[in-house]
Amino acid sequence: MSTVPTLADSTSCFTNFSRLTALQTGTKSDTLGRTFPVGTAFDPATSRATTAGVPDPTTRLLASTSRCVRDPFYAGTLGNQTNFTIATQRVLLNQLPSGCLNASAISLLNLLPTPNGSGFTNNYASFPTVTDNSDGVDLRLDQHFND
After folding, report:
1. Domain residues for 47?
2. CA distance linking residue 66 with residue 89, whole number of Å
3. Cα 121 versus chain centre, distance
4. Over the stretch 117-145, which tens digit does the pLDDT of each residue have?
5. What does the alpha-carbon distance between residue 68 and residue 51 come to, in Å, rounded to a whole number?
6. DSSP states of 90-146 as a string?
């Protein structure tokens, strides 16, 4: 079994990965007090430092400690939002803008076969014809050393 992109991946042009949070359990929190479901993808372009007790300029949330944060790929408004685990927020997570995807990488992904199984992993079974082109030799020697 192999893993290939799902039909949902292909039909969304590899921009909608909202189901990743549904496949996992648990939550994580950041220094701004925001709670995210496990499986949330964060935008590396939004990395920024926060200072304890100072409101974050992007979200207007107060930082509890001085650390770096990143915002998730999210199709909604980030301002004053702290709980991304609610079902209506979860579906907006992991929505990647098509402009941040590499066109060459998408072309390569489109060359992969469509899944012939269900699920997110191990969704493709291949049964190639196996040809054995090896040659074999049998040899027998009879030696009579004396009467």
Report:
1. 17-95
2. 26
3. 11
4. 888 888 899 887 888 888 888 888 888 77
5. 9
6. HTTBTB--GGGS-HHHHHHHTTSPPPSS-SSSS-B---PPP----------------
pLDDT digits (tens, 9 = 90+) for 6-20: 888 888 888 888 888
Q: Is residue 87 part of a domain?
A: yes
Where do we find the tokens 């979860």? 90
| In a domain? residue 51 | yes
Name the pTM for this structure.
0.72
Number of domains in the chain: 1
Any domain includes 120: no
User: Which residue type, as a one-letter code, is found at position 52?
Assistant: A
Give CA–CA dist 40/90, Å, rounded. 9
Q: Is residue 88 part of a domain?
A: yes
